[in-house]
Design a protein that fits this description.
Shape: globular
Largest sheet: 7 strands, antiparallel
Distance between the termini: 42 Å
Order of helices and strands: EHHEEEEEEHH
Strand content: 35-45%
Number of helices: 4
Length: about 140
């Protein structure tokens, strides 16, 4: 069941966006919703990690698909199911980039997730994407 999709478009080098967004250990440095994040190994299908949102419990995730520079998918187990997060970086013709993140859920608690958590997850994701844009801008100006 589709929970949400958030996207933003801004001026940036897509390779830099990818580099920052896929540096899992650095998420807490710029993402206001992340307290802890780690990835055990490289960002490749089969790698696992753990992340904790501020004010919430942490959880594990597994990278299930990667198209380098463009897209990665991560799955997190939930009781009787899983959450699926799809992240994409799309270069646009005018020196801009479209960045999006969506979440789907499968399993027995999907309706409960949609009612109780989807709106907060969407707000946190919108805040994260805004922070990503800011971090990319800072790093572009420091080159």
């Amino acid at each position: 069941m589709f929970l949400f999709q958030c996207e933003t478009t801004f001026e940036a080098d897509p390779a830099l966006v990818w580099k920052i967004w896929t540096d899992v250990a650095a998420w807490p440095q710029w993402d206001p919703s992340r307290e802890i994040a780690q990835l055990d190994g490289d960002l490749v299908a089969g790698s696992s990690g753990w992340a904790k949102r501020r004010g919430a419990l942490g959880g594990s995730f597994t990278i299930t698909a990667v198209t380098p520079g463009r897209r990665w998918v991560a799955e997190s187990p939930i009781p009787s199911g899983k959450l699926i997060f799809d992240h994409s970086v799309e270069p646009l013709a005018d020196g801009r980039v479209r960045v999006s993140k969506s979440a789907d859920a499968e399993g027995g608690f999907v309706v409960l997730l949609r009612v109780m958590l989807a709106a907060r997850m969407c707000r946190d994701t919108a805040d994260s994407l805004a922070a990503l844009e800011q971090e990319v801008g800072l790093q572009q100006s420091c080159r």
